[in-house]
Design brief:
The protein is an all-alpha fold and 51 residues long. It contains two helices and no strands.
């Protein structure tokens, strides 16, 4: 029978891969999303009230 194990030690709980919430908590990403969101909000308000 062929041994298919890689011999790697499983990751400990401290080394778990970080998920989406960790990525969203980064300041540059939050600033970028805030700028894009404010531009979309200004465009929507302009369409609603100025046109």
């Amino acid at each position: 029978m062929v041994d298919t194990s890689r011999g790697d030690v499983p990751a400990s709980p401290a080394e778990e891969p970080r998920g989406c919430l960790f990525a969203l908590s980064q300041p540059p990403l939050l600033i970028f999303l805030g700028v894009i969101g404010s531009l979309l909000l200004m465009a929507a308000l302009h369409d609603l009230f100025m046109l």
